[in-house]
Design a protein that fits this description.
Bound molecules: S-adenosylmethionine
Oligomer: single chain
CATH topology of the largest domain: Rossmann fold
Shape: globular
CATH class of the largest domain: Alpha Beta
Helix content: 25-40%
Largest sheet: 7 strands, mixed
Order of helices and strands: HEHEHHHHHEEHEHEE
CATH architecture of the largest domain: 3-Layer(aba) Sandwich
Number of strands: 7
Length: 297
């Protein structure tokens, strides 16, 4: 077993860093022996991906996400870590000694540049560096876009943000070297997943109520119909013999009679695990609530 060394290189909404200890207890036994492949179709910041990469030697790994800028960052980090790191070191040197007012000016200039570059299909090192820079210096490490698809998170107030965690970036780059990285819908994983594959699905959560809705990671919402289609897909790959774990919110936090997800996943094992996150947009109600961990085996 390799020594643990990598962690997510971006902070991501819905990141599973705090739940990783609970999730890893559910990894299929024998992972690394009988399981030769891993897929994470909603990769986001990849908390589970990096835990798996730290521990197991697998033959094939597949990740995807619909967020094109995030996927560009994974690809640039895999293919061209040196240029990415030197750009980030340059941003760090320029930013870190500035006064608050000049930091503000610098941040909003970089945000504008990021939005100007967005939507280009080509692999773009500058856009990848900007995504990491903005993620490290913005308010709360959020990735949020407006209705025009423009990244619109304001500056955060970190005194010494870690803009370039060079060691981690280099370890991640090396570990990604034989990972298949796909920009697009989770269903594109269909050809990859077979009976020797462990798959972790971490979709945008079903909102607990109207105000807690935070499903706009990209321009597309993930509504109840999308949740039902995903449940169908998960059933299909698990019928094929794949080992599947999925996360979602627990509707019963706010409505004990809401069986929507229990019904969609009635053929699977549903665990209710304790998590610490906001029930609604009011930070004062932050506390322990339960989340679903759905397991096919
Ligand atoms: C809850 S987050 C995943 C968080 C991740 N597990 C982590 O630790 O950071 C859900 C991710 O799904 C992506 N997404 C939304 N719709 C998708 C779709 N149809 N197919 C694939 N990814 C999608 C979003 O861009 C977002 O990054």
């Amino acid at each position: 077993m390799k020594e643990k060394r990598m962690k997510p290189f971006v902070k991501w909404a819905g990141g599973k860093g705090q739940l990783i200890d609970t999730i890893k207890k559910q990894y299929p036994k024998g992972l690394g022996v009988t399981i030769r492949k891993y897929a994470e179709p909603f990769v986001g910041g990849g908390a589970v991906l990096f835990d798996i990469l730290n521990k197991y030697e697998l033959d094939e790994i597949y990740i995807s996400d619909t967020n094109a800028e995030l996927i560009n960052t994974y690809k640039v980090l895999r293919n061209n870590a040196d240029d990415l790191i030197s750009m980030l070191l340059q941003y760090k040197d320029e930013y870190i000694h500035l006064s608050d007012d000049f930091r503000k000016e610098y941040y909003y200039k970089k945000r504008k540049r990021f939005n100007d570059l967005k939507c280009q299909e080509v692999l773009d090192t500058e856009m990848a560096s900007l995504l990491i820079f903005l993620n490290r210096t913005c308010f709360n490490g959020l990735y949020r876009v407006n209705s025009k698809g423009e990244y619109n998170v304001p500056i955060g107030s970190y005194k010494t943000p870690l803009i370039c965690d060079e060691d981690n970036l280099r370890h991640v780059s090396e570990a990604l070297s034989n990972v298949t990285i796909v920009c697009g819908d989770y269903r594109k994983s269909n050809d990859f997943v077979d009976r020797n594959t462990f798959v972790y699905f971490d979709p945008p959560y079903r909102p607990l109520n109207a105000t807690s809705s935070f499903t706009a990671y990209t321009e597309n919402a993930f509504d109840d119909e999308a949740q039902a289609e995903l449940a169908n897909y998960i059933q299909q790959v698990s019928d094929r013999g794949a080992y599947v774990i999925a996360s979602n919110s627990d509707p019963k936090n706010t409505d004990p009679d809401d069986d929507f997800l229990d019904e969609l996943y009635s053929k699977m094992k549903i665990m209710r695990i304790s998590a610490s996150r906001m029930i609604n947009s009011n930070a004062s109600s932050r506390g322990k609530i339960s989340e679903l961990l759905i397991c096919s085996y």
